[in-house]
Amino acid sequence: MVVGHATKAALTPCIEAHYLHRWPAVVPCRLALWLDGVVVGACVFAFPPRETVKRYKGMVWELARLWLAPECPRNSETFFVARALRHVRRTHPGLVGVVSYADPSVGHTGLIYRAGNWRSDGRTDADRRTPRFDYVVAGKRYSRRAHCPAGVITRVPRTSKYRFFYPLVRDLVNGVLRP
User: Residue 105 domain-assigned?
Assistant: First the structure.
C-alpha cells in the first residue's frame, strides 16, 4: 500500500462513498491510499473553525474525511492515518496538531484514533450553555435554518461528537505549547 497526494478528481468517488457524501469547505491537503495502483482510500485535511485554532493555541488542521474501500486489509485505517500524519508533519512544519471527530450518531466511537495514540479531548458542545439543533426538511438534515428549503421544518437536537487531537509538535502538552 502506498500513500501520496491525489487530485480532487481521483478522490471524488471515495468522498461520494463517505457517509457525508461531500467535500469539506477548504482543503489544504488530499491524500490517497493506493493498493496495486488503484485508489482504495482518501484522507482529506481541512481548515477547522476559528475556535479550534484558539483551543490549541496554534495552526491546526482537521482530518475531515477518512474513507477506505471494504476490500482493504485489516488495520488499514490506522496504517493510512499514521502515514498521512507523518506526511503532514514533514511537509507542513508550522502546524501544531490535527483534530478529528467521531460521530456517534452513525456508530463511530473513535476506535481508529485511540488505536493511533490520539488524545481524547472531550466532546463537542460540552462547554455550551444551550444545546445546538439541526433542522430536518423532507427527511434531509441541515445544520443551519437559513440553508433549509421551503417546507415543514423540524428542529432536532444535534448529537455531540467525540473530539480527538494528535499533536505534531513534541512540546505540546494538554493542548498548550510549552514556552
Answer: yes
